[in-house]
Amino acid sequence: MKKRQMVIKQRSRNSNTSSSWTTTSSSSSSSAISNVRYVECQKNHAANIGGYAVDGCREFMAAGVEGTVDALRCAACGCHRNFHRKEVDTEVVCEYSPPDA
After folding, report:
1. pTM of the prediction?
2. Where is this region: Disordered (predicted)?
3. What is the mean pLDDT of residues 38-62?
4. Domain segments of the chain as ranges
């Protein structure tokens, strides 16, 4: 019996996606891997005077190591990570065996 594989890639800006999942049965198995990146800063620095101005920061770079408070602050612009637009890339791999005829 020959197994086949199908790969599906999806890019989403939705923050409500799970990071990974796996299912397995006797004839098929599936797994999904999500990679999250934070891109341009969307903080409005002129909101207090009724205007609109962003700082031009194009990508979040953590100011500290993972697990510290500085890991949530951008080294380039000083803003919290939540001000940066979140992109989620999801890859789903399904392996299955076609039914015997």
Report:
1. 0.63
2. 1-32
3. 95
4. 33-93
